[in-house]
Write a sequence for this structure.
């Protein structure tokens, strides 16, 4: 065994031959300075170790939908379109440029030349089409059920009446033309989704990428997904040691873009946020993701770099109009909005950098309207509106999740307490109903609509208003319980179907204004940026609002 | 002896069948399920329906149960819902981690507990005895979770003596033969890997050993005190046997019987304690798998197999305890 950059230690070898009974004394005899964190130091090269919060599922982009899987996938693959580092702005990825026809159905991508996959095969238009065709023609319910983003964005698979994808042509090696059956507002933003990364057709064929088999209650994935992920990214797959929870990525010396500055990157899975912090302090990792909001200030004070991602999420207070008829009255919903002291909530419970939200999408997304009705905190207005609506003495069941922490909702219990107190101050009686996140909350709220009020949120997937507002309010859902908001549903559908970008922007801005004044199906609470923390010697890490960092720019200084 | 083994094996079969059924229906009666856990906020009615169908949760519960029994009987526990790996691979990887930790903890607990308990009894009422009682009381009372964080804060943050988590240093390219990292290092002559693994074992093993250690000390002390009051000890003393002989042959041997029972019971408790200890130290053993399977994805196949495994381990350990009686106390061998 060789820890990188360290010589084996004779003393430790002697201890190994000893017995466990004396291990305390023996181990204590080994100086802490003998420990190695596996990180070479120097201006270039070395190993960058980042502590992630969970296991990746596998490394075939199309079968994944969670951030912990996407983090390594992003290092190994590229998408046709990507985001400018540190922003949600779309820029060329594997495609140098893209355009669409006036109907928004035909998308033409001009591809980069001279790019190769990790297996040495060429990246070209045929490879792009092979990926699109593979996704669309995926066979078997097992495989299809794991393509969450494809089903969501492309509506369905080949043969399905709802399928959006039609075909992909490669008129020449440098041009891929993707044709849709109908326009969808998600594009072009959705082309930047990590799930739609381009993989090597040769490797997928060699390692049976499409083989998703069901065994009992579950699925197993191919050798491609587990052992031979092959993309065009800045890092190549170096191994996934499940016993130690370490994923190794090696520098791709043939990368088409900025080559990685470190030789190797290790993503170490540490699920407990406190342990991640302790590893950082012990110097055994150089970066940690998702620090506890309460730790950010302390870590910054200790000299660590706290890199806040620009917020690309939303926490909202959902209002279900089904169970309590009073909630169908707009004035009651407005009273709830006025009753909430969101500025104070942000100040007392929000993670660093959090800001009060006045609409359901961050300001970086197209269609954000700066002039929406704000609902500044006013208990008097809330009481007056309740009285006008004949809803004095209103009692509401407020569901909130336990056993969960989300980037947009790090402390649900505390958020609930503050919001409930605000509502009670305005004369609304609140019955708090805690439910475990995976043990009833999502079922009760999203499937059965048992609640009157609830807190929930969302982290955006791509830069499109439909991915925020459309996701929540684009159709009737048990979560909000009102089938009658047809005006809202059709306004959203219309905005989503607008092809011209300027007109689309205007349409969405109006939707957001109306959302605040006319419909108010929920109250936006805050945008809360998640953070990364690194040691002082980590340079070049650019935090992404979409948590879509690529680490080829990272270097370790002395 | 054979009869004991046969009786225990029969008990094992009945227990497993009952447990298998109980676990199956218990897991499915819990609110929430793998479909929602897997889909998270992105669940749409369509994706939920597709996944439910693909996982077979749209079938009647008795059909699901029939399929489950059929799979278990053929030795197929299915694949992890979360990772897609065979359940046997998930458990096979985590099992050595927990066993390594449990062995280290039990060595600490027994290695320190029996001598301390004996000394406390021998010097009954004196400073050592009183100190032992107080310290063991603290040992039993202190929650593992809290102790783990306390030790970590002190020994990995305030003074950097031990690593905060994991089984081996990050980036160490040790050869994995059996999954027992300390043993693997010895087998492959990568002695620095063994030392590194031992180094990482210290704090988790101490944390996990606290409760069994405290209990073993107290049981040993009480048991030795009982034996010291027995007539045969007085007889042996009157016969003029040397103190060392009396202690070794008559006191300790007779006092060990309840201690061995306690060790057996504590081995089961260690598995429960491992869940917390492993969480604190990011250990990656069965405790971690259990936590992930419940809170992360409602990974039914893994949970079912784990609970059955825990039952088997518990029963087998108790069988070994029973058998060890026969070794320690020849009277047990008599029918």
């Amino acid at each position: 065994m060789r820890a990188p950059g360290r010589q084996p230690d004779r003393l430790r070898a002697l201890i190994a031959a000893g017995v466990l009974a004396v291990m305390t004394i023996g181990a204590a005899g080994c100086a802490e300075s003998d420990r190695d964190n596996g990180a070479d130091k120097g201006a270039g090269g070395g190993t960058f170790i980042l502590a992630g919060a969970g296991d990746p599922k596998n490394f075939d982009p199309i079968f994944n939908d969670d951030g912990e899987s996407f983090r390594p996938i992003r290092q190994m693959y590229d998408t046709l379109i990507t985001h400018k580092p540190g922003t949600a702005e779309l820029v060329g990825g594997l495609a140098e440029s893209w355009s669409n026809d006036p109907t928004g159905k035909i998308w033409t991508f001009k591809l980069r030349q001279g790019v190769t996959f990790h297996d040495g095969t060429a990246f070209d238009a045929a490879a792009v089409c092979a990926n699109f065709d593979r996704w669309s023609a995926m066979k078997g319910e097992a495989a299809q059920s794991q393509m969450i983003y494809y089903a969501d964005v492309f509506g369905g698979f080949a043969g399905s009446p709802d399928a959006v994808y039609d075909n992909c042509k490669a008129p020449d090696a440098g041009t891929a033309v993707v044709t849709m059956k109908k326009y969808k507002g998600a594009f072009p933003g959705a082309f930047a989704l990590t799930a739609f990364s381009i993989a090597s057709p040769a490797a997928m064929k060699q390692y049976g990428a499409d083989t998703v088999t069901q065994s009992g209650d579950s699925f197993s994935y191919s050798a491609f997904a587990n052992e031979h992920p092959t993309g065009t990214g800045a890092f190549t797959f170096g191994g996934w040691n499940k016993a130690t929870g370490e994923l190794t990525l090696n520098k791709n010396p043939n990368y088409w873009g900025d080559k990685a500055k470190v030789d190797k990157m290790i993503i170490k899975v540490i699920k407990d946020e406190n342990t991640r912090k302790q590893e950082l302090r012990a110097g055994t990792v150089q970066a940690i993701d998702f620090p506890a909001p309460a730790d950010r200030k302390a870590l910054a004070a200790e000299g660590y770099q706290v890199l806040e991602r620009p917020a690309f999420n939303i926490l909202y207070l959902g209002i279900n109009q089904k169970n309590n008829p009073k909630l169908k009255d707009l004035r009651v919903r407005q009273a709830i909005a006025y009753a909430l002291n969101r500025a104070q909530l942000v100040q007392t419970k929000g993670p660093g950098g959090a800001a009060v939200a006045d609409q359901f999408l961050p300001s970086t997304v197209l269609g954000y309207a700066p002039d929406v009705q704000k609902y500044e905190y006013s208990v008097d207005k809330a009481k007056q509106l309740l009285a006008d609506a004949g809803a004095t003495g209103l009692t509401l069941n407020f569901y909130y999740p336990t056993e969960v922490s989300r980037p947009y909702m790090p402390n649900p219990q505390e958020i609930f307490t503050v919001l409930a107190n605000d509502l009670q101050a305005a004369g609304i009686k609140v019955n708090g109903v805690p439910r475990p996140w995976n043990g009833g909350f999502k079922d009760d709220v999203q499937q059965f609509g048992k609640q009157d009020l609830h807190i929930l949120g969302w982290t955006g997937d791509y830069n499109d208003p439909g991915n925020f507002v459309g996701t929540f309010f684009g159709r009737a859902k048990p979560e909000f319980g009102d089938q009658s908001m047809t005006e809202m549903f059709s306004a959203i559908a219309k905005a989503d179907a607008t092809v011209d970008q300027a007109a689309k922007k205007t349409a969405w801005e109006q939707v957001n204004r109306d959302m605040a004044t006319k419909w108010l199906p929920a109250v936006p609470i805050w945008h809360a940026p998640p953070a990364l923390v690194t040691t002082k010697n980590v340079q070049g890490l650019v935090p992404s609002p979409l948590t879509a960092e690529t680490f080829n720019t990272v270097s370790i200084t002395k | 002896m054979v009869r004991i083994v046969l009786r225990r094996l029969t008990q094992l079969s009945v227990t497993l069948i009952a447990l298998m059924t109980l676990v199956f229906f218990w897991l499915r009666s819990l609110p929430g399920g793998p479909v929602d856990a897997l889909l998270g906020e992105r669940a749409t009615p369509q994706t939920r329906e597709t996944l439910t169908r693909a996982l077979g949760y749209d079938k009647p519960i008795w059909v699901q149960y029939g399929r489950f029994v059929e799979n278990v009987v053929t030795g197929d526990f299915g694949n992890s819902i979360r990772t897609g790996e065979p359940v046997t691979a998930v458990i096979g990887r985590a099992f050595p981690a927990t066993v390594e930790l449990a062995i280290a903890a039990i060595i600490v607990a027994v290695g320190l507990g029996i001598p301390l308990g004996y000394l406390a009894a021998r010097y009954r009422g004196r400073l050592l005895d009183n100190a032992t009682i107080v310290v063991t009381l603290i040992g039993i009372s202190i929650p593992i979770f809290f102790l783990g964080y306390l030790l970590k804060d002190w020994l990995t943050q305030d003074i950097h003596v031990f690593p905060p988590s994991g089984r081996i240093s990050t980036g160490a390219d040790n050869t994995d033969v059996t999954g027992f990292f300390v043993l693997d290092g010895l087998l492959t002559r990568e002695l620095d890997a063994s030392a590194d693994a031992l180094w990482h074992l210290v704090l988790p093993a101490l944390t996990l050993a606290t409760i069994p250690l405290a209990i073993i000390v107290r049981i040993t002390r009480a048991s030795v005190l009982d034996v010291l009051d027995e007539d045969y000890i007085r007889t042996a003393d009157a016969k003029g046997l040397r103190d060392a002989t009396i202690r070794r042959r008559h006191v300790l041997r007779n006092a060990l019987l309840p201690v061995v029972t306690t060790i057996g019971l504590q081995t089961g408790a260690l598995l429960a304690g491992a869940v917390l200890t492993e969480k604190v130290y990011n250990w990656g053993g069965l405790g971690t798998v259990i936590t992930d399977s419940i809170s992360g994805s409602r990974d039914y196949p893994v949970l079912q197999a784990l609970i059955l495994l825990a039952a088997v381990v518990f029963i087998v350990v108790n069988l070994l305890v029973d058998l060890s009686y026969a070794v320690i106390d020849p009277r047990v061998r008599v029918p």
The radius of gyration of chain A is 25 Å.
